[in-house]
Amino acid sequence: MVVDRPRENAICEVVSDSLDAWGWSEGADLPASAYIHIPFCHHRCGYCNFTLLANRSDLYDRFLDALEKELSGLLISRPVQTVFLGGGTPSILPPPQSIRLLAMLGRWLPITSRSNSDRDKVAKYLTEFSIEANPLDVTTDFCKRCKDHGIDRVSIGGQSFQPNKLQHLERDHSPADLRRAIETAKEHFNRVSVDLIFGAPGETLEDWCCDLDAVIAAEIDHVSTYGLTYEKGAKFWSLRKKGILDPVSEESELMMYEEAIDRLTCAGFEHYEVSNFSKPGEECIHNQAYWEGRPWWAFGPSAARFVGNRRSVNHRGTIEYMKRIESDRSPIEESEDLDEDQRLRERFVFGMRQRKGVSWDDWKVSGPASTVDFIDGLIQQHIENGWMQRVGGRVALTRRGLMVSDSLWSEYL
Ligand code: SF4
Questions:
Q1: What is the set of domains in the chain, with CATH numbers?
Q2: Ligand 1 pocket list (CB less than 6 A)
Q3: What predicted TM-score, i.e. pTM, was given to this entire model?
């Protein structure tokens, strides 16, 4: 593989032992995917506890300095097949900063098709460069800038097409903003995804059906649906504790999830992962690295990576992340080397999020016998419960299993 040495500058002097700290050593597989966390939003939505700072445009340049220094730990440019710009709201960066970000990613993590795996021989896309966007940011200028720098997939944080629900969720955009953003994105990109939330306080099944019908009518090729969760640290968590917010019942939430599966699959989407639906061939290939247990790089505050045999995660606080890098300290907050037992258990659990399940018969030959016996026993039990099924050499969730899957995984880990 030919790699270019990025241009030298003062910023590149530090973090010279990052590769070691991330878990990579000469000869090991290089990750083919990279996640970049951009920790800024216009404001913080009530349900969100992600790592981000709201309304802090004064920190954009300082953050990019830190990010560039962290990327310089790669030492040379490391070609990847997929990059995912998430957050936060990566689309928030104004043109000078977003051009700087995209140029530095092009330098350190150029996107190149390099694999010849069986999957890639039949895949519709060999590479992918995704950006998450707030509907308010999706303008013609934004799309052109993204395209000029190789971005080929936009994931819009829509959440709902209904004004009341958007208001309850404390989103800063209207249904009209979302529709306009989708149309603008479709004019520039073949690959457009929209996120939707269900189970907002006060939401009825009819409300949710309206959202599903609206996203189907938008004629996009990828939809992600998430049940609203009440996370510690988010405003909604304390409002719920005080009895001010009344969550929808578990039964209603399950009905909404089932409705999403029925309506979207009826409209030609494939339900390829617990929360994700795509038209044939339009699956997000970046996320498949997580689900299939392949390694990935990650940069930015709270970013979690899997390199070599090591999982590591950066400090969650954006200010602390920047301070550590500015003073030549590692931003890594925690890391753990996985042994064969942990690796097989995790790989199984992440892989089972995919509707096609996992090639368990192939995987288990490489695992420790005691772990394989343990997982085999649980699989058998969950097949008898009607939650899992064997298809050829694969094991996958049944539809009934999907409804209880969140409660199953702790048994395997
Ligand atoms: S939900 Fe999305 S847009 Fe809202 S604060 Fe969280 S990351 Fe930002």
A1: 10-337 (3.20.20), 340-412 (1.10.10)
A2: 41, 44-45, 48, 50, 52, 87-89, 134, 157
A3: 0.93
